[in-house]
């Protein structure tokens, strides 16, 4: 059993508090009591690590955090009630009024919306396409560089070590969203990233039955965030959702291998289809970032996008409606295969900022047989381009 498989399946689960239970106990209580007033006072002062009140942490949540920190090779992790809870608290912990944030490449739409929200508090941001653009956009007030790799919707790959080296030379903190790869396939902290965030609702949970988020990194950055933004924003993870994270982690290595296999099979089929202009999957040798991805990743998930040979929103909608095995919906990372089209569901200004074309369709390949999904896509693609 390699390190990641042991972390996912066994880390922390043989300790005395588990009492030999094959599934770690779920601590449902909202508070903990103490023998003396002094003990309570000490616990409150260290509420990021001590069990005081549900809004701080509890043993079930703490076990999930320990596993996630170990998987990412980080010192500490803090779980939140949603991915955006983790992202919002993390960004807020690193900036103050007058500060500037650089955003490299395309990122999750609500992250951009949150950065726009921060403008009312005097925090500005600039989107740049590459580090050359970063050199032009950086100011004396820039404090943070935020990015994803592979990037949102376009699935472009950046050289993480190059980006973090560039940021470090300029005194910037780096935050990276690693949801696409999971810690099984990519470990950004080992390449110089300061803080990593995830939506736990996706592959890590793996069953489309929880909403959660996490931030992982050094204690010097996680502790103040846990004591301040985590507590004040109130986006606490419930122990029941933490238990689902723990169960999802047990099968994560096996599921990611299966997602990779099926995703690449579907992407290979689409790459040769005349109704598809482009397939944005870093696992394909034709992808411009494939060599970089192979160097810094150990595998590929099954979330990618294609560009249909059309400029018609109507035709994009028809394609989605013709699918029978791919369900139409947001999110991804579960057993079920999903499809979504940003032109039909994303705020126009956000789509424009990210440079997402009308014909772009996102596919989340689930764990159904690849040949079933390929047949489904082939039938739905018949006639695409007639309205172009």
From TrEMBL:
Listed cofactors: pyridoxal 5'-phosphate
A Gene Ontology biological process term: transsulfuration
Pfam families referenced in this protein's UniProt entry, alphabetically: Cys_Met_Meta_PP
CC annotations in GO: cytoplasm
E.C. number(s) listed in UniProt: 4.4.1.2
Record-linked InterPro entries: Cys/Met-Metab_PyrdxlP-dep_enz, PyrdxlP-dep_Trfase, PyrdxlP-dep_Trfase_major, PyrdxlP-dep_Trfase_small
Similarity field: Belongs to the trans-sulfuration enzymes family.
Species, as recorded: Nonomuraea turkmeniaca
Catalysis performed (reactions): L-homocysteine + H2O = 2-oxobutanoate + hydrogen sulfide + NH4(+) + H(+); L-methionine + H2O = methanethiol + 2-oxobutanoate + NH4(+)
Keywords: Pyridoxal phosphate, Transferase
Entry's Gene Ontology molecular function annotations: homocysteine desulfhydrase activity; methionine gamma-lyase activity; pyridoxal phosphate binding; transferase activity
Keyword Transferase attributed: yes
PANTHER family: CYSTATHIONINE GAMMA-LYASE, TRANS-SULFURATION ENZYME FAMILY MEMBER
Annotated protein name in UniProt: homocysteine desulfhydrase
Residues with N6-(pyridoxal phosphate)lysine modification: 202
